[in-house]
Design brief:
about 130 residues, 6 helices, single chain
């Protein structure tokens, strides 16, 4: 599969809709996204996403029904690894520090609890290695 970071804004918007729906026709995508382009443009973009390896289709009557080729979580992890490597030398700590230093960054209590839990798990996992 191609690099998810190479998707245009519209392609990412379409992929988000298809992941959310599980499978979708061009009409389904048009109905699912804000300020959609024309149905013809969505069909074209979905065909391009298929050529790039992000979608595959089956035919249902006269419509192509598309499904993602990869799970959203795996694609997101690859994209995050690339961002970490490109901008933070592969360091999650540096990325998190940059995020927390941003005055527009806010973390709710639930997010802070989750991060604390993940840090404790990582420490435990590190001690076992």
């Amino acid at each position: 599969m191609n690099d998810p970071m190479e998707l245009s804004r519209r392609e990412r918007q379409i992929m988000d809709a298809v992941w959310r729906l599980g499978e979708a026709s061009a009409s389904d995508v048009v109905a699912a996204i804000d300020n959609p382009p024309s149905r013809t443009s969505v069909r074209t973009l979905m065909r391009i996403l298929e050529e790039k390896g992000h979608l595959f289709h089956r035919i249902d009557g006269r419509e192509f029904i598309y499904k993602p080729t990869g799970q959203r979580q795996r694609v997101a992890q690859r994209a995050l690894r690339r961002v970490l490597q490109t901008f933070f030398g592969g360091s999650v700590g540096e990325a998190l520090a940059a995020h927390l230093a941003d005055p527009q960054s806010t973390l709710g209590d639930e997010e802070l609890r989750r991060l604390n839990h993940l840090i404790r798990e990582a420490r435990t996992k590190g001690k076992k290695s």
